[in-house]
Amino acid sequence: MREPAFVNHSANRLPGLDLLRSIAILWVMLFHSFIVDGVGPRFDPLARYGWVGVDIFFVLSGFLIGSQLLRGLQRGEGLALGAFYARRAWRILPAFAVVLALYQFVPALREAPGLQDWWQFATFTLNLLIDYGQNQAFSHAWSLCVEEHFYLVFPLLAWLLTRRPSASRFLLLCGGVVLLGIALRTGIWLHDTATDPPRPWFVEDLYYPTWSRLDGLLMGVMLAALRVYRPQQWAALQARSSALLAGAVAVLGLAFWLFSERTGLLANALGWPVLSFGFGLLTLAATNPRGWLGRRELPGVGWLATVSYSLYLSHKIAMHLVHEYIAPSMESQGLLLFAVYVIAILLGGAALHYLVERPGLRLRDRLQAAGRMPVAARDVQQGVGRTASP
Q1: Would the pTM count as exceeding 0.85?
Q2: CA neighbours within 13 Å on the CB side: how many for 41?
Q3: pLDDT of 172 above 50
Q4: Looking at the chain, which terminus has fewer C-beta neighbours within 10 angstroms, N or C?
Q5: Integer Cα distance of 99 and 318 in angstroms
Q6: Does residue 147 contact residue 62 with C-beta atoms inside 8 Å?
Q7: According to the model, what pLDDT value does residue 332 have?
Q8: What crossing angle do the helices spanning 272-286 and 241-258 adopt, rounded to 10°?
Q9: DSSP of 307-329
Protein backbone atom coordinates (compact mmCIF):
# COMPACT_ATOMS: atom_id res chain seq x y z
CA MET A 1 0.00 0.00 0.00
CA ARG A 2 2.66 3.74 -1.89
CA GLU A 3 0.66 4.92 1.10
CA PRO A 4 -0.89 3.76 3.25
CA ALA A 5 0.04 0.15 3.74
CA PHE A 6 1.52 0.08 0.31
CA VAL A 7 4.37 2.50 0.91
CA ASN A 8 8.03 2.07 1.65
CA HIS A 9 8.15 4.61 4.50
CA SER A 10 11.95 4.47 4.66
CA ALA A 11 14.30 6.41 2.43
CA ASN A 12 16.59 3.36 2.54
CA ARG A 13 14.78 0.84 0.36
CA LEU A 14 14.90 -2.79 1.48
CA PRO A 15 14.51 -5.24 -1.42
CA GLY A 16 12.89 -7.80 0.86
CA LEU A 17 10.10 -5.45 1.88
CA ASP A 18 9.62 -4.35 -1.72
CA LEU A 19 9.26 -8.03 -2.62
CA LEU A 20 6.56 -8.54 0.02
CA ARG A 21 4.76 -5.39 -1.10
CA SER A 22 4.85 -6.56 -4.72
CA ILE A 23 3.57 -10.02 -3.82
CA ALA A 24 0.79 -8.42 -1.79
CA ILE A 25 -0.49 -6.16 -4.57
CA LEU A 26 -0.31 -8.92 -7.19
CA TRP A 27 -2.15 -11.30 -4.88
CA VAL A 28 -4.88 -8.79 -4.11
CA MET A 29 -5.44 -8.06 -7.79
CA LEU A 30 -5.56 -11.78 -8.54
CA PHE A 31 -8.23 -12.17 -5.87
CA HIS A 32 -10.25 -9.30 -7.31
CA SER A 33 -10.31 -11.01 -10.69
CA PHE A 34 -13.64 -12.46 -9.54
CA ILE A 35 -15.23 -9.23 -10.78
CA VAL A 36 -14.27 -10.28 -14.33
CA ASP A 37 -15.26 -13.95 -13.90
CA GLY A 38 -11.92 -15.11 -12.50
CA VAL A 39 -8.67 -16.28 -14.07
CA GLY A 40 -9.57 -19.89 -14.75
CA PRO A 41 -9.32 -23.13 -12.75
CA ARG A 42 -5.52 -23.27 -13.00
CA PHE A 43 -5.10 -20.15 -10.86
CA ASP A 44 -8.25 -20.39 -8.77
CA PRO A 45 -6.53 -22.00 -5.73
CA LEU A 46 -4.02 -19.14 -5.65
CA ALA A 47 -6.62 -16.45 -6.30
CA ARG A 48 -8.84 -17.84 -3.56
CA TYR A 49 -6.43 -16.64 -0.86
CA GLY A 50 -5.54 -13.35 -2.54
CA TRP A 51 -7.37 -11.38 0.13
CA VAL A 52 -4.42 -12.03 2.48
CA GLY A 53 -2.42 -9.49 0.46
CA VAL A 54 -4.17 -6.77 2.45
CA ASP A 55 -2.95 -8.37 5.66
CA ILE A 56 0.62 -8.24 4.35
CA PHE A 57 0.09 -4.52 3.76
CA PHE A 58 -1.24 -4.08 7.30
CA VAL A 59 1.82 -5.73 8.85
CA LEU A 60 4.16 -3.66 6.67
CA SER A 61 2.31 -0.46 7.50
CA GLY A 62 2.37 -1.11 11.23
CA PHE A 63 6.07 -1.90 11.05
CA LEU A 64 7.15 1.04 8.90
CA ILE A 65 4.96 3.74 10.43
CA GLY A 66 5.62 2.32 13.88
CA SER A 67 9.39 2.40 13.31
CA GLN A 68 9.21 6.00 12.09
CA LEU A 69 7.19 7.29 15.05
CA LEU A 70 8.81 5.22 17.77
CA ARG A 71 12.32 6.05 16.61
CA GLY A 72 11.57 9.77 16.84
CA LEU A 73 9.99 9.41 20.27
CA GLN A 74 12.89 7.27 21.48
CA ARG A 75 15.29 10.05 20.44
CA GLY A 76 13.22 12.58 22.38
CA GLU A 77 12.03 14.52 19.32
CA GLY A 78 8.43 14.83 20.47
CA LEU A 79 5.33 13.82 18.60
CA ALA A 80 5.03 16.51 15.84
CA LEU A 81 1.46 15.53 15.01
CA GLY A 82 1.04 18.34 12.49
CA ALA A 83 3.99 17.18 10.42
CA PHE A 84 2.92 13.55 10.65
CA TYR A 85 -0.65 14.15 9.51
CA ALA A 86 0.40 16.61 6.80
CA ARG A 87 2.79 14.10 5.28
CA ARG A 88 0.22 11.30 5.45
CA ALA A 89 -2.42 13.52 3.84
CA TRP A 90 -0.18 14.51 0.94
CA ARG A 91 0.77 10.90 0.42
CA ILE A 92 -2.75 9.49 0.48
CA LEU A 93 -5.30 12.06 -0.57
CA PRO A 94 -4.35 13.29 -4.09
CA ALA A 95 -4.54 9.88 -5.77
CA PHE A 96 -7.46 8.80 -3.61
CA ALA A 97 -9.43 11.97 -4.43
CA VAL A 98 -8.90 11.51 -8.17
CA VAL A 99 -10.07 7.90 -8.13
CA LEU A 100 -13.05 8.76 -5.93
CA ALA A 101 -14.02 11.53 -8.37
CA LEU A 102 -13.83 9.08 -11.26
CA TYR A 103 -16.08 6.63 -9.45
CA GLN A 104 -18.49 9.40 -8.46
CA PHE A 105 -18.84 11.24 -11.76
CA VAL A 106 -18.15 8.53 -14.38
CA PRO A 107 -20.44 5.59 -13.54
CA ALA A 108 -19.26 3.69 -16.62
CA LEU A 109 -15.94 3.10 -14.84
CA ARG A 110 -17.51 1.31 -11.88
CA GLU A 111 -17.00 -2.45 -11.57
CA ALA A 112 -20.46 -2.62 -9.91
CA PRO A 113 -23.47 -0.30 -10.31
CA GLY A 114 -23.92 0.74 -6.66
CA LEU A 115 -21.61 3.19 -4.89
CA GLN A 116 -21.79 4.35 -1.27
CA ASP A 117 -22.27 8.06 -0.59
CA TRP A 118 -19.14 10.08 -1.35
CA TRP A 119 -18.89 11.45 2.19
CA GLN A 120 -18.32 7.97 3.58
CA PHE A 121 -15.23 7.67 1.41
CA ALA A 122 -14.14 11.21 2.25
CA THR A 123 -14.46 10.63 5.99
CA PHE A 124 -13.01 7.11 5.82
CA THR A 125 -16.11 5.62 7.42
CA LEU A 126 -16.95 3.39 4.46
CA ASN A 127 -15.81 0.22 6.22
CA LEU A 128 -18.20 0.90 9.11
CA LEU A 129 -21.30 1.97 7.15
CA ILE A 130 -21.22 0.12 3.82
CA ASP A 131 -24.28 -1.63 2.43
CA TYR A 132 -22.21 -4.24 0.63
CA GLY A 133 -25.21 -6.02 -0.82
CA GLN A 134 -26.15 -2.92 -2.83
CA ASN A 135 -22.97 -0.84 -3.15
CA GLN A 136 -19.85 -2.80 -4.07
CA ALA A 137 -18.12 -0.26 -6.33
CA PHE A 138 -14.79 0.96 -4.91
CA SER A 139 -15.43 -1.18 -1.86
CA HIS A 140 -11.73 -2.04 -1.68
CA ALA A 141 -11.27 1.41 -0.13
CA TRP A 142 -12.26 -0.27 3.14
CA SER A 143 -8.61 -1.07 3.88
CA LEU A 144 -7.65 2.62 3.52
CA CYS A 145 -10.26 3.37 6.20
CA VAL A 146 -8.57 0.91 8.56
CA GLU A 147 -5.21 2.54 7.83
CA GLU A 148 -6.58 6.03 8.46
CA HIS A 149 -8.01 4.99 11.80
CA PHE A 150 -4.60 3.56 12.68
CA TYR A 151 -2.92 6.84 11.74
CA LEU A 152 -5.40 8.75 13.87
CA VAL A 153 -5.01 6.70 17.05
CA PHE A 154 -1.52 5.19 17.03
CA PRO A 155 0.62 8.35 17.34
CA LEU A 156 -1.18 9.41 20.52
CA LEU A 157 -1.08 5.91 21.93
CA ALA A 158 2.63 5.63 21.14
CA TRP A 159 3.27 8.96 22.85
CA LEU A 160 1.45 7.83 25.98
CA LEU A 161 3.26 4.49 26.12
CA THR A 162 6.69 6.03 25.61
CA ARG A 163 6.35 8.66 28.31
CA ARG A 164 7.24 5.92 30.77
CA PRO A 165 8.44 3.00 28.65
CA SER A 166 7.62 -0.41 30.06
CA ALA A 167 8.05 -3.65 28.13
CA SER A 168 5.62 -5.50 30.39
CA ARG A 169 2.93 -2.82 30.00
CA PHE A 170 3.39 -2.81 26.23
CA LEU A 171 3.16 -6.60 25.96
CA LEU A 172 0.12 -6.62 28.24
CA LEU A 173 -1.61 -4.09 26.02
CA CYS A 174 -0.75 -6.05 22.87
CA GLY A 175 -2.01 -9.28 24.40
CA GLY A 176 -5.18 -7.53 25.49
CA VAL A 177 -5.84 -6.24 21.99
CA VAL A 178 -5.40 -9.74 20.53
CA LEU A 179 -7.69 -11.36 23.11
CA LEU A 180 -10.28 -8.61 22.75
CA GLY A 181 -10.28 -9.09 18.99
CA ILE A 182 -10.77 -12.84 19.38
CA ALA A 183 -13.65 -12.31 21.81
CA LEU A 184 -15.27 -9.60 19.71
CA ARG A 185 -15.14 -11.54 16.44
CA THR A 186 -16.38 -14.69 18.17
CA GLY A 187 -19.32 -12.81 19.66
CA ILE A 188 -20.22 -11.19 16.35
CA TRP A 189 -19.98 -14.51 14.51
CA LEU A 190 -22.16 -16.33 17.03
CA HIS A 191 -24.74 -13.52 17.05
CA ASP A 192 -24.97 -13.22 13.27
CA THR A 193 -25.11 -16.96 12.61
CA ALA A 194 -27.88 -17.23 15.17
CA THR A 195 -29.94 -14.32 13.84
CA ASP A 196 -28.96 -14.82 10.17
CA PRO A 197 -29.54 -11.19 9.07
CA PRO A 198 -30.62 -10.85 5.41
CA ARG A 199 -27.42 -9.09 4.29
CA PRO A 200 -23.74 -9.97 3.68
CA TRP A 201 -22.96 -9.83 7.39
CA PHE A 202 -19.54 -11.48 7.12
CA VAL A 203 -18.21 -8.58 5.07
CA GLU A 204 -20.07 -5.82 6.89
CA ASP A 205 -19.67 -7.03 10.48
CA LEU A 206 -16.44 -9.06 10.50
CA TYR A 207 -14.22 -8.47 7.49
CA TYR A 208 -14.36 -4.69 7.00
CA PRO A 209 -14.69 -3.05 10.46
CA THR A 210 -11.49 -1.66 11.93
CA TRP A 211 -11.93 -3.31 15.34
CA SER A 212 -11.87 -6.73 13.64
CA ARG A 213 -8.70 -6.07 11.64
CA LEU A 214 -6.16 -4.80 14.16
CA ASP A 215 -3.99 -7.94 14.29
CA GLY A 216 -1.82 -7.16 11.28
CA LEU A 217 -1.18 -3.56 12.27
CA LEU A 218 -0.46 -4.64 15.84
CA MET A 219 2.02 -7.26 14.64
CA GLY A 220 3.83 -4.60 12.63
CA VAL A 221 3.94 -2.22 15.60
CA MET A 222 5.37 -4.97 17.82
CA LEU A 223 8.14 -5.54 15.27
CA ALA A 224 8.80 -1.79 15.20
CA ALA A 225 9.03 -1.63 19.00
CA LEU A 226 11.48 -4.53 19.00
CA ARG A 227 13.57 -2.82 16.33
CA VAL A 228 13.70 0.53 18.14
CA TYR A 229 13.88 -0.47 21.82
CA ARG A 230 15.66 -3.83 21.63
CA PRO A 231 18.15 -3.42 18.76
CA GLN A 232 20.42 -6.23 19.94
CA GLN A 233 17.58 -8.75 20.04
CA TRP A 234 16.38 -7.42 16.69
CA ALA A 235 19.80 -7.95 15.14
CA ALA A 236 20.05 -11.44 16.63
CA LEU A 237 16.69 -12.40 15.11
CA GLN A 238 17.56 -10.85 11.76
CA ALA A 239 20.67 -13.00 11.61
CA ARG A 240 18.40 -16.07 11.72
CA SER A 241 16.36 -15.05 8.69
CA SER A 242 16.37 -18.56 7.21
CA ALA A 243 14.84 -20.00 10.38
CA LEU A 244 12.36 -17.12 10.45
CA LEU A 245 11.38 -17.83 6.87
CA ALA A 246 10.83 -21.51 7.65
CA GLY A 247 8.78 -20.56 10.70
CA ALA A 248 6.71 -18.15 8.63
CA VAL A 249 5.92 -20.88 6.12
CA ALA A 250 4.80 -23.22 8.90
CA VAL A 251 2.65 -20.60 10.66
CA LEU A 252 1.09 -19.42 7.39
CA GLY A 253 0.32 -23.03 6.50
CA LEU A 254 -1.62 -23.28 9.76
CA ALA A 255 -3.35 -19.96 9.03
CA PHE A 256 -4.43 -21.07 5.56
CA TRP A 257 -5.79 -24.28 7.07
CA LEU A 258 -7.77 -22.24 9.59
CA PHE A 259 -9.12 -20.16 6.72
CA SER A 260 -10.07 -23.16 4.60
CA GLU A 261 -13.59 -22.12 5.59
CA ARG A 262 -13.09 -18.39 5.36
CA THR A 263 -16.38 -17.39 6.97
CA GLY A 264 -16.23 -20.03 9.71
CA LEU A 265 -15.87 -19.51 13.44
CA LEU A 266 -12.38 -20.99 13.75
CA ALA A 267 -11.04 -18.75 11.00
CA ASN A 268 -12.49 -15.57 12.40
CA ALA A 269 -11.78 -16.27 16.04
CA LEU A 270 -8.17 -17.45 15.73
CA GLY A 271 -7.19 -17.13 12.09
CA TRP A 272 -6.39 -13.42 12.05
CA PRO A 273 -3.74 -13.36 14.81
CA VAL A 274 -2.14 -16.54 13.44
CA LEU A 275 -2.05 -15.09 9.92
CA SER A 276 -0.59 -11.83 11.18
CA PHE A 277 2.07 -13.63 13.20
CA GLY A 278 3.10 -15.55 10.10
CA PHE A 279 3.40 -12.39 8.04
CA GLY A 280 5.26 -10.77 10.94
CA LEU A 281 7.89 -13.52 10.81
CA LEU A 282 8.04 -13.08 7.03
CA THR A 283 8.52 -9.32 7.39
CA LEU A 284 11.29 -9.76 9.94
CA ALA A 285 13.05 -12.23 7.65
CA ALA A 286 12.70 -9.79 4.73
CA THR A 287 14.49 -6.99 6.60
CA ASN A 288 17.77 -8.90 6.51
CA PRO A 289 19.60 -7.69 3.38
CA ARG A 290 21.62 -10.91 3.35
CA GLY A 291 18.67 -13.25 3.77
CA TRP A 292 16.81 -15.23 1.12
CA LEU A 293 14.15 -12.53 0.67
CA GLY A 294 16.38 -9.45 0.79
CA ARG A 295 19.72 -10.38 -0.70
CA ARG A 296 18.96 -9.17 -4.21
CA GLU A 297 16.50 -6.85 -5.93
CA LEU A 298 14.55 -8.69 -8.60
CA PRO A 299 13.86 -6.84 -11.87
CA GLY A 300 10.65 -4.85 -11.75
CA VAL A 301 9.94 -5.52 -8.08
CA GLY A 302 11.07 -2.08 -6.90
CA TRP A 303 8.90 -0.34 -9.50
CA LEU A 304 5.90 -2.51 -8.69
CA ALA A 305 6.29 -1.71 -5.00
CA THR A 306 6.59 2.00 -5.80
CA VAL A 307 3.33 2.15 -7.77
CA SER A 308 1.45 -0.35 -5.59
CA TYR A 309 -0.77 2.27 -3.95
CA SER A 310 -1.90 3.64 -7.30
CA LEU A 311 -2.38 0.10 -8.58
CA TYR A 312 -4.52 -0.75 -5.59
CA LEU A 313 -6.75 2.27 -6.09
CA SER A 314 -7.22 1.90 -9.85
CA HIS A 315 -6.99 -1.80 -10.73
CA LYS A 316 -10.71 -2.55 -10.59
CA ILE A 317 -11.43 0.26 -13.05
CA ALA A 318 -8.90 -1.20 -15.51
CA MET A 319 -10.29 -4.71 -15.06
CA HIS A 320 -13.83 -3.50 -15.63
CA LEU A 321 -12.99 -1.56 -18.80
CA VAL A 322 -11.22 -4.53 -20.36
CA HIS A 323 -14.05 -6.85 -19.33
CA GLU A 324 -16.73 -4.62 -20.83
CA TYR A 325 -15.10 -3.28 -23.97
CA ILE A 326 -12.29 -5.65 -25.02
CA ALA A 327 -12.95 -9.12 -23.61
CA PRO A 328 -16.18 -9.77 -25.58
CA SER A 329 -14.20 -9.77 -28.83
CA MET A 330 -11.44 -12.03 -27.41
CA GLU A 331 -13.40 -14.85 -25.81
CA SER A 332 -11.28 -17.63 -27.28
CA GLN A 333 -7.89 -16.02 -26.59
CA GLY A 334 -7.31 -16.80 -22.92
CA LEU A 335 -3.60 -16.10 -22.58
CA LEU A 336 -3.71 -13.03 -24.78
CA LEU A 337 -6.73 -11.69 -22.91
CA PHE A 338 -4.92 -12.21 -19.62
CA ALA A 339 -2.02 -10.16 -20.99
CA VAL A 340 -4.45 -7.39 -21.98
CA TYR A 341 -5.79 -7.29 -18.43
CA VAL A 342 -2.25 -7.09 -17.03
CA ILE A 343 -1.20 -4.31 -19.41
CA ALA A 344 -4.35 -2.28 -18.74
CA ILE A 345 -3.92 -2.56 -14.97
CA LEU A 346 -0.24 -1.57 -15.10
CA LEU A 347 -0.92 1.35 -17.43
CA GLY A 348 -3.75 2.62 -15.25
CA GLY A 349 -1.69 2.37 -12.08
CA ALA A 350 1.34 3.98 -13.71
CA ALA A 351 -0.76 6.88 -15.02
CA LEU A 352 -2.22 7.55 -11.58
CA HIS A 353 1.21 7.33 -9.97
CA TYR A 354 3.13 9.54 -12.41
CA LEU A 355 0.36 12.07 -13.09
CA VAL A 356 -1.08 12.45 -9.60
CA GLU A 357 0.72 10.64 -6.78
CA ARG A 358 4.30 11.63 -7.60
CA PRO A 359 3.50 15.30 -8.41
CA GLY A 360 1.65 15.47 -5.10
CA LEU A 361 4.73 14.23 -3.27
CA ARG A 362 6.92 16.76 -5.02
CA LEU A 363 4.54 19.57 -4.16
CA ARG A 364 4.50 18.40 -0.56
CA ASP A 365 8.29 18.52 -0.38
CA ARG A 366 8.39 21.98 -1.96
CA LEU A 367 5.88 23.25 0.58
CA GLN A 368 7.97 21.75 3.36
CA ALA A 369 11.15 23.30 2.04
CA ALA A 370 9.42 26.68 1.79
CA GLY A 371 8.20 26.42 5.40
CA ARG A 372 4.55 26.35 4.39
CA MET A 373 3.69 23.08 6.13
CA PRO A 374 4.75 21.54 9.46
CA VAL A 375 8.16 19.87 9.52
CA ALA A 376 9.27 17.18 11.95
CA ALA A 377 12.64 17.38 13.66
CA ARG A 378 14.06 14.54 11.59
CA ASP A 379 13.14 16.38 8.38
CA VAL A 380 14.94 19.49 9.57
CA GLN A 381 18.04 17.41 10.27
CA GLN A 382 17.89 15.32 7.08
CA GLY A 383 16.48 17.87 4.65
CA VAL A 384 13.42 17.54 2.47
CA GLY A 385 12.70 17.22 -1.21
CA ARG A 386 13.13 13.45 -1.50
CA THR A 387 10.08 11.76 -2.97
CA ALA A 388 11.32 8.46 -1.54
CA SER A 389 10.91 9.77 1.98
CA PRO A 390 7.85 8.87 4.05
Answers
A1: yes
A2: 0
A3: yes
A4: C
A5: 12
A6: no
A7: 65
A8: 160
A9: THHHHHHHHHHHHHHHHHHTGGG
